[in-house]
Amino acid sequence: MSGERDYIFGTRDEEIARLGLQHRVWRSRATDAWRRAGFRTGQTLLDVGCGPGFASLDLAEIVGPEGSVLAIDRSRRFLDALESSARVRGLGQIATHQVELDQGPLPAVAADGAWVRWVLAFLPRPQDLLRSIASALRPGGVLVVHEYVGYETWRFAPRSAELDEFVRVVVESWRAEGGEPNVGLDLPVLLGELGFEIRSLVPILDAIRPTDHAWEWPKSFIDIGIRRLIELGRLDAAKGDAIRSAYAEVERSPHALCVTPAVLEIIARKP
User: Fold this and answer.
1) Residue 155: which region, alpha, beta or left (left: phi > 0; alpha: psi -120 to 50)?
2) Which of 60, 84, 95, 203 is buried deepest, with most CB atoms within 10 A?
3) Domain positions in the chain
4) How far apart are CA 121 and CA 186, in angstroms?
5) Which residues pair with 115 in a beta bridge?
6) Per-residue pLDDT tens over the stretch 96-112
7) Is 176 helix (H, G, I), strand (E, B) or coil?
8) CATH 3.40.50.720, applies to 13-269
9) What distances in angstroms separate CA 247 from CA 40, 238, 242, one per listed residue?
10) pLDDT in tens, 180-234
11) Which helix (H) or strand (E) holds 43?
């Protein structure tokens, strides 16, 4: 990876594609939260842990040419992908910044808002990043967060011991890397300690079927996740094949159901 620290699920083309699918599935929920947070034309917004920048592109459309989006990530490869997409779409209001989120300060701005999705869960000290975000927001600036609050709610029907084990191994691997998948449970306290006013707390959990577009999200994660966990030595190839077979069997069932990992949406205002 040319000297950069790798994400637990990597930064390869297949992961960029998966993140694009994930954003398409979640776009309506993100844009609804941004609307309720008051994100609008002419503002300066932060996309913290932007990855390949799918949300950054949408935020740039919201702020328009009069505003600006600061897209912040530690992966140069992800930021290169975003810069390429922004050029194609003529979105010059996006500026990328390579920052180690758990180490370096964020750009010195007085931003009107900030967006964080599935970033704090990967950091050993999420409070440090929250403090940096608070410093980068102007008084009255609004932070919107989507983070898992109950990852173990991810279950399938018909019930599958193999898929339950996959979820368990994902959580174990996550914590072994220093993160906390259920960080959403800690965030209201951490934000309160930093002086934020919690404006909204909304749990998000869906029950989806294979005919739903959202089904493609967990499906893509399982495929890439198995391969990545094998690379990390968390699964052996035989167990990975067993999980794939179990998933295929569930998906073939006329009664197939997936309950998604529980997410907590937080909208908080800096005083």
Assistant:
1) beta
2) 60
3) 13-269
4) 10
5) 47, 144
6) 999 999 887 899 899 99
7) helix
8) no
9) 42, 14, 9
10) 999 999 999 999 999 999 999 999 999 999 999 999 998 888 988 999 899 999 9
11) none
